[in-house]
Here is the input.
Amino acid sequence: MCRAIKTLHNFSPPATADEIHASSLQFVRKLSGFTKPSKANEEAFNRAVDEVVHAAHHLLESLVTNAPPRNREVSDVEGESTIGRPSGPPTRGYYHRVPYGPPDRWSWDLQGDERRYLGGIPLVGKRVLEIGPANGGLTFWMTKEGASVVSVDLGPDPEATPWDLLVRPGDDERELMLGMSLGQRALNDNWRYGREYYAGDAQLVTATAYDIPREVGEFDVLVYASVLLHLRDPLRALEHGLSFVRDTVVITDVVPTLLPKEDWERPVAHLVPYPSVRTPHGGITWWHLSPKLVEHYLELRGFRIVRREIGEFRHFSRNVELFTIVATRT
Here is the structure.
């Protein structure tokens, strides 16, 4: 489908007549192959546009949804970052295993385990803010479950969305930046293809976890899915994210195997990077956080811990233990 055609359903304020006509015009241009028809085809072309406009109006008036209307300003923010969207399945950027991706090139396979990974929270009719969606494996599962999702992730430009990248003595900073840029572009493109594949209405906003734009509005649920360990300042990011949520926060992170098990019940963290240890990762693993540290901070911010669960999930190399914490605002 033509990339200039925008989703118009379920916006506040609603789509205008001009927007519907513009999308209808692009649709007919795509089908006919004409940007501007010849005199011989002009009547048929214009008639087709009018008929598509009529059908589109009827469609938008007839559609029903349980999801709250999407914020027009968020869509505008998203629209600035949709250039270069792939027209076919991407060749790179498969962090989550997805149905349209290669069977052997992914980091995490959460298919069938999404509900357990997210702590079993109800999603129907919920507005969800997801931080760090990667290629959208959880994003589009949540939308299929009835949630309206806004995903926030880094973009490929380090000046627009600065990365928490550790540049050590002897590192080639330019090479690191180039690799990170290419990897992040692949993830962003893969996410956008996933939205087309699932015909979903999720939105992608490019920003850091520390400066989510206020235009995204308020949310029922906030999700950090294996994100905090990759942030230089996870508590600052968490504080910022919590300011957007009315009710529930879900945090999943790696079980801190670098901490003694008795420290899991203390509010402590282990700084992962060492001069002798290089992490071949898109970005870097900064921390192993104890579950108690996450819970303690949530309680300090006025949240009540509902549950903590530890379980194994399928990583490409082996099964990995993760903890999931669900908390609600008191």
